Structure formats: structure tokens, C-alpha cells
Amino acid sequence: MARRARPRTTETELTVQLQGQILGHLRGAGDDFDFEPTRDAIQTWGLGSRMLSAAIPLVPRTTRGREVRSNFFAELLPEGDARKRLADEAGLRRNDVMGMLAAYGRDVAGAIQIWDASIPGEPRTPEVEPLNDKGVRAMLENVGSAPLGNKPQRGKTSLNGVQPKIVLVRTENGWARAIDGYPSTHILKPRVPGYQSMIFDEEYGSRFARALNLASFSTELLTFDGTPALVIERYDRDPKALDGRIHQEDFNQALGLSGDQKYEMFGGKGVRDIAEVIEADDAEQVLKMITLSVAIGNLDLHMKNFSLLHLPGDSVRVAPMYDVVPQHFYDNDGEMALRIGGEFEHRLLAREHLEMAGVEIGIRNPEQIVTTTLEIVREVATSERPHPAAHPGLQFAVGEMATRLLAGKTVSGEAPGAAASSAGGSSGGGGWRWDNPRHHTDASQRAE
């Protein structure tokens, strides 16, 4: 049973570790806190290093940038119902960021670990708890009340996002639950009521990302004691890396944004702003991601669905593409999460919009990149069938959209100018959103 929520009003100090070294401390209470690096960390990584985040230089205590620093850590927590249930389990309020990080900060996205050194037993010794197929099935079926599959009291995992999921460790002997901050290696997504085809649609979308060399991690559909799940290898985990983790941050964090600012229409950044945080060599990869998303109807390409990998020497690379889900046939507003070439509405997008997006992120001649990407999408759609439980018509729809875009038409098959005129212009964007009640109510009536 969840404990009664309590406010944390006294100031707390949390330890922040990165790649085996104490990086600094979080000090404050609730959602009012700040981060300060240690002198040793500044000496190790260098004054002004952005090893933690593109938005947070390692400098001695300063009042400037406080909101950006607190946003970075708050963005490590899940969203929506998952956050509320994690908070309930810990007896906290959902806006108690410090309390949530103390409870679940041991296994988060990237190579950070966070804990409260004043709590007896810290730092903990991570371990795993073996699971059989029935145990995994039980966790998948209970994901609504136990988000991420955390074990009461000893589960220390947090992962951002809204879609229901659990995280597990794949060992030589099978599956196991991460205990006391052991680095989880895989994300498992169950079927979602009202969106019964989603995990099968996402598996199909991941094939396009791999064909374009935008992702190399495995994505597979497995069954656990009769219950299907999409099993995704975590690209930010590596047993050969220090602590088994690779540091990364999403673009919301890298741009200093928070929450719904991941959507451009809610005060967030746009495609042009991506150039601020990526290396010039990665612009082509980002354009491929955008082009693929438009071609397959991945409307929810927001700033938390792009990430940066932090490499030795303070360099960054765009992380592999993830959460590639064809969504254009779901009950939604038909708009992209980001404006593409000045346009939000998916059906109005044409290759000229994709080329404009390429120019916005610094590519002088984006035409060939767009063409090659669309050709590969069409080839994969022609040669590979989705799982039988995927949305009916998915394969045909993706092939048709790629073909139309290659022909210079819009996604809907019209001439770009004619499509815009008939639509009367775009309404302002937003894309398909898990946390938009309108995108759940109607769909739940169609649940299988």
C-alpha cells in the first residue's frame, strides 16, 4: 500500500555521482533546489566542462542558471501517472523532486547516480533478483500500479516518459529485477489498453531506424508466460563501461527545458534550436531522424525523443534514435510535436519542408540526404512485413507516404500548395500526446 504523501520542507543534501566520481550535490527541498559541483570534479573534468549537460557548465557556486540546473534533474523523473504512482509508493508528493530523486535516483537515464548520504546504508550495494517468465509477466500486468517494476523499498529506478514500461536486467542466466540501483539493461513495454497495436507498431518503426543506421541496439517482441512485450536494449548501458553506464541527456535537458516544453507549441524550442547542442557532423543524422518520422507518421518526435551521448574529452554525439512509433492512424490531432519546415500538420508536409528543416540545422544541401532516406524507407516498407498484431495497413501506409514524399507531394498525396489551401493553414501543433486526455478518451472506447 502506498504511504501517505508528506511534504519535505527541510533542506536536504543529495550526492550526485557521475562515472564513479562524486560530481557534486543537490541542496534544497521539494522542487526548490540547486546543484553545485565539487572542487575535485571541476579539477578532474575542467572548469566550464559540460560533461554533465550541454546546459550546465561545471563552475563554482553561482545563482545564474539555477532554473536550468534544477530542470535537468527534474527531467530524470517520469511523467504523468507513472510519476504519481512512484510518488505515492514513496509517500511523497509528485512535485517533491528532491524526495523523488532521493528515492529513485540510483538508476536513471545516463550515468548519473543520486542518493541521500544521510540515510543509513548509503551508499548501497546494488544487486539483482532473478525472475522467471511468470515473474516478468506479473510485473508487466502490474505496471499501472508499480511503474518501472520497482520493488517496494529497494527499487531505485527512475526513467522519464509517459508510456507504461518496466526495466529489467538481462543476465547470463536470464531476466532479473534491478535492486538498490543496479544498472538496468532493458526496457520492456506491455500492450496498452486502447492502443493494442502500439508495441507491434513500434517494433516495425525500429526496423526503419536500424536500416538507416540511426539505431544499433536490439528491439524485439518476446512473450513472457503468454504475455507479449516489446523488449528494448538500453543504449546507455554497457557492462564494459565504468559502473555499467554511458552518460546521456535528452534535448529537453540539453536546452534547459522542462516538462511540456518538449513540445514546441508549449513554449519549447524548435528544429532550428537543435543546432545549438549538436556537433556539425551530427546534423545529417538529425535530418534523417526527422525525415524518417515524417515518412512513417512518428508524430511524437519531441525534444525528449532526441538525446546526446557524452563522450570522453567533453565531446557529444547524437544518441541512437528511439521511440519510433508510427502514430498517424491513432486518434490524434494529426500534428507533429515539432514544426517541420514551418509546418506542424503532418498531412501537409512535403519534401520541401524536410529540406527546409535540414537548412535550419546547418546543412547546406539537404536534398540528397532527404531523397536517400525516403528511398530506404520505401525499400524497407516494400520488403518487410510488420507483426500480424500491428495496425492493419501499416506496411502499405508507410510505403505510400514515402512514395508521395519522393514524388514531391505531401504526405496526403496532394500538391504542397493545394494541400495548404484546402486545410486553411496549420492550427499550431502539438502532435500525438500521451498526457493529452483527448488522446485517451476516444481510444479507450475502442479497447480490445
Write the layout of secondary structure elements.
Blueprint: E1 12-18, E2 21-29, E3 32-37, H1 39-45, H2 66-74, H3 80-90, H4 97-104, E4 112-115, E5 127-131, H5 133-141, E6 166-171, E7 174-179, E8 186-190, H6 198-211, E9 219-224, E10 227-233, E11 248-250, H7 251-254, H8 271-274, H9 283-296, E12 307-311, E13 315-318, E14 335-340, E15 343-345, H10 351-360, H11 367-383, H12 394-406, H13 416-423, H14 438-444
Antiparallel strand pairs: 1-2, 1-4, 2-3, 5-7, 6-7, 6-8, 8-10, 9-10, 11-12, 12-13, 14-15
Describe it for me?
The chain is an alpha+beta fold. It folds into 3 domains: about 10-115, no CATH class; about 125-235, no CATH class; about 260-435, no CATH class. It contains 14 helices and 15 strands. A 6-stranded antiparallel β-sheet has the order 5-7-6-8-10-9. The protein has a 4-stranded antiparallel β-sheet with strand order 3-2-1-4. It has a 3-stranded antiparallel β-sheet with strand order 11-12-13. Strand 12 and strand 13 (about 315-320) form a beta hairpin. The longest helix has 17 residues, at about 365-385. Residues about 1-5 and about 430-448 have low confidence and may be disordered.
